[in-house]
Design a protein that fits this description.
7 strands
């Protein structure tokens, strides 16, 4: 649902969880792509509001508009989860 200039509000549901979730980056991008295709928002940065209360910011890649999107949000640390160094590259396979 469009709730303002360059602002959407979505609700997300995940199979496997079988419930509504607080936020989902891929669904946020999908909502922005569809809203842009329908001319509900312009092809620039969009705030996507969700149940978590922290909006996700979806913006098109400067050189690959319509094909690549960046998603960002305010990050917080959960008191019961260990902090991770996000600058270290992820190594798969041990």
């Amino acid at each position: 649902m469009v709730v303002g200039v360059q602002e959407l509000e979505i609700r997300t549901y995940e199979r496997g969880v079988e419930a509504e979730t607080l936020s989902c980056r891929s669904e946020s991008v999908a909502a922005v792509v569809i809203a842009t295709m329908r001319s509900l928002v312009a092809d620039k940065q969009v705030s996507v509001h969700n149940l978590s209360g922290t909006p996700l910011i979806v913006r098109p890649h400067a050189e690959r508009r319509g094909k690549v999107f960046w998603v960002s949000a305010l990050t917080t640390t959960h008191p019961r989860l260990p902090a991770r160094n996000l600058r270290r590259p992820w190594k798969s396979g041990g």
